[in-house]
Amino acid sequence: MGKLSELMSKGVRLIVVDPDAEPAPEPEARVPSPPPPPATQPSAPVGRARGRQLSAEVAQAAPPRRVARSEVAADVQDFAAVYKEAGITLPPHGYGVDRIAEMLQGKRLATLSREVRATAVLAALEAARVDVQDVIEDGIRRDKALDAFEAAKERELVERKAGNETRVQSLRKDLDDLLRKINSEIEKLKQESQEAEAAFAQLQIRKRQEEARLHDVVAHFVEGANPISTGPGASGPADPAARS
């Protein structure tokens, strides 16, 4: 719940009590006494009917602005950007969760018990004519904005993972197609080499046969060594590189 949970844990729960309960005792002497409320607005004991109506009224708190896709990064460290994107602003009187948190953690109240701190802050709100419901509603709106932000980032994560997986599958298919193409070309080149070797071997056979025929013919007309060769060429197969 964010700062709302922190606020509730620091004493706001005190306002929800039995309406027949006695008024809360005055704060200890070391707690600064708030100025008295105007005569036209008599102060109500902490935890009376206003606290009983709080939950129903808070449930109707205006929700934060809905954002289809958040422009705030998921690794944001300051949620002020999230609140701003959701259109959350301070109440006109300036008392929101952040200010109340500062009051609860102030030097004069930090060392006191939770109950005393809550009572002192509620008394200060009474003096400033601020309804604590406004503070809680501010916390609820911020909490809803955080929930919506988390949900938006979860949707983005799911969409990104799905998109990346689709791209990975596409790249793998491209890789498989490329490998098949490369392997096919390799096999083709090997086949061409084998066919060329077989053709050359047949050429050598036919060449020797032709040389033998020429040798026999010429042998009828020469004495001594026959000028017709009947074996492999002296230099072997021609090397294309040697010609250049």
Task: Summarize it.
With 244 residues, the protein is mainly alpha-helical.
Task: Describe the protein.
Helix 1 packs across helix 4. This protein has 244 residues and is an all-alpha fold. Mean pLDDT is 77; it is low at 11-54. The chain is rod-shaped. The chain has helices at residues 3-9, 49-58, 80-85, 97-104, 107-110, 114-127, 132-219, 240-243.
Task: Break the fold down into its secondary structure elements and pairings.
Layout: H1 3-9, H2 49-58, H3 80-85, H4 97-104, H5 107-110, H6 114-127, H7 132-219, H8 240-243
Helix pairs in contact: 1-4
The low-pLDDT segments are 11-54
Beta-strand fraction estimate: under 5%
List the secondary-structure elements in sequence, H or E.
HHHHHHHH
Query: Helix segment count?
Result: 8
Specify Rg, calculated over alpha carbons.
47 Å
For the terminal residues, how far apart are their CA atoms? 83 Å
Q: Globular, elongated, flat, extended or rod-shaped: what is the shape?
A: rod-shaped
Q: Quaternary status of these chains?
A: single chain
Average pLDDT value? 77
Q: Report the structural category.
A: mainly alpha
Helicity range: 55-70%
Strand count, sense and closure of the main sheet?
Answer: none
